[in-house]
Structures are given as C-alpha cells and as structure tokens.
Amino acid sequence: MPRPNMRRRVDAAIKAADHLHDKDAAAIQLLRALADALDAAYDEDNGGSVYRKYAGWMSPHIMNAMRALGLTADSGPKAGFVAPEKPNALTELRARRFQRHAQGGGDVG
C-alpha cells in the first residue's frame, strides 16, 4: 500500500477554492487536523491494516468537513453551492418590523 498523503490533497483542494474566507478558518483547521491524523495512522510494519481501519472511521468526517467548505464536486460552486448572504440593513429592518406586528405591536404598512 502506498504511503497516504491526505493532507497534501486537502491543502490542494483548499488552495484551489476561491470561495473560502477568513470565517472558514476553524473548519479548515479541523479538516487539516483530520487529514493529519489519518496520514499519521499509516504504518508500513502492519501492511496498512491499521490505516485502512482508521480510514473507515475518519473518511466520513473528512468528507463532511470538505462538503461543509464546498470542496467536493457535489458541494462546490460549480455544483451550485452558494454561501448564504447576510441580509442588508433594509431587509433586517423589515423583518424586525414584521416580527413586531406578528406579536401584536404595531402595523406593517
């Protein structure tokens, strides 16, 4: 079994992504830590059996982190992934006004 290099692949995916921002730093750090842990589990002495078992445990977590960051083919910008936009001030004002009205305090006109 060839030596794994999940961290290198994760770093390449992060570098290629132009939609990531500073707010994604914690998720990126988590993804890199998961990749490092998976790579560290490899041991040539046991023929990779520990690595395969560890990969079975870690792979879903790595994939979930990658999807959350839009780094997979089914979750990235090319697949229609769009980060939610923060509403503008007028939209927020209207929402608060509507909420007040719904609670019986004022009109929405």
Write a structural description.
This protein has 109 residues and is an all-alpha fold. It has one domain (6-84). The chain has helices at residues 6-16, 25-40, 49-68, 89-102. The termini are far apart.
Name the features.
single chain, 109 residues, mainly alpha
SSE layout:
Layout: H1 6-16, H2 25-40, H3 49-68, H4 89-102
Q: What Rg, in angstroms, do the CA atoms define?
A: 22 Å
Q: Give the biggest beta sheet.
A: none
Distance between the termini: 69 Å
Tally of discrete structural domains: 1
Low-confidence stretches: none
Average of pLDDT: 82
Number of strands: 0
Number of helices: 4
Structural class designation:
mainly alpha
H and E order: HHHH
- Fraction of residues in helix: 55-70%
Amount of beta strand = under 5%
* Net shape: elongated
In short:
The protein is mostly helical and 109 residues long.
